[in-house]
Amino acid sequence: MLGASCVAACSQSTTEAEAWANPASWRSVKVTETDNIVFATVPLIHNPSAAASPDPGVPKGIREPVPNTGPSGTIDLHLDVYRTPSPRPTPVVVQIHGGGWLRGDRPSSSSSFGGFFAAGASVVTVQYRNAIDAPAPAAIQDVRCALAWVKANAGKYNFDLNRVIVWGGSAGGHLALMAGYAPASFNPAGCTDQPPVAAVLDDYGPTDLVAGLKQHGSTDFTHQWLGLDLPLPAASPAAGRPAGQRWPEPSPAVLARAREMSPLTYIRPGLPPTFIVNGDSDRTVDPTQSAELKKALDAAHIPNGQDVIAGGGHGGFSTEESEKAMLLSLKFLKANGAID
Fold this sequence. Notes:
Distance between the termini: 18 Å
Structural class: alpha/beta
InterPro entries: AB_hydrolase_fold (IPR029058), BD-FAE-like_dom (IPR049492), GDXG_lipolytic_enzyme (IPR050300)
Radius of gyration: 20 Å
Number of domains: 1
Domain BD-FAE-like: 79-297
CATH superfamily: Alpha/Beta hydrolase fold, catalytic domain
Strand order of the largest sheet: 1-2-4-3-5-6-7-8
Largest sheet: 8 strands, mixed
CATH architecture: 3-Layer(aba) Sandwich
Mean pLDDT: 85
Number of strands: 8
Number of helices: 10
CATH topology: Rossmann fold
CATH class: Alpha Beta
Keywords: Hydrolase
Strand content: 15-25%
Pfam family, one: BD-FAE
GO molecular function: hydrolase activity
């Protein structure tokens, strides 16, 4: 199915590669599921910019613990584990859901993971604090804690710590990139012992939040997750504000925060191999975000690949395009030693 590009991967007889190269086989792999495992207990922080409507009584930029949300205003974060039976340690894909950093949850089933299972990998799906629970960098820290959990429990779940893959779509793609790229200064206390990230799979994730502050489709999500400004009141528009401008002009502090939370800020030699999937007609995360990431990875000589889906939007691809994207992702992972 992969044609000439599959020659190296498919040169062996009856290999695991042949199994994952056939999407029809993806639904037949049996896995063991363990769900609702608590991997971290973290604080909830009041984020005024992510509220449904601005509260004039809360000054800009004020963050405070949310009362009555559990012991000391905390929340338990959960993950699910889907184990592929194997006599030897398996690669593990840490899956991070999307939702504009504001909503969403880990998948309720493993139906979209069949390609990984067929390739002999296990999958861990993680919960993280959304922007209402806590603004940036909370979600990045939560994913880093999930990676620490993977390392601490590798023996129990038969994970290969040399083949940890992070994968996410939309906001989850951004968090996957930050999990693989951001420096150790993002690691929260108690979550510093993490495995190396062997590869990153980024499905149409934001890569430049400075641009995201102004690009159509992502402006609200970006401001709200950064948590540094409140929307301008609709009833009293700022003097001289352009028609339709919902947010104040970014201050130097906002721009600095946006750069700090942008994967593009941390591009440097030695980063994990990265595969990008995006539609060329995405109206939520501008396609230039993926293009700029690939350009930067090329300049830093980081192994990378990209599947640009013609006419594709922000996800919602056809079954054919989704299967193609998964096949190309698996081929890339195999070429870079992350799967067999």
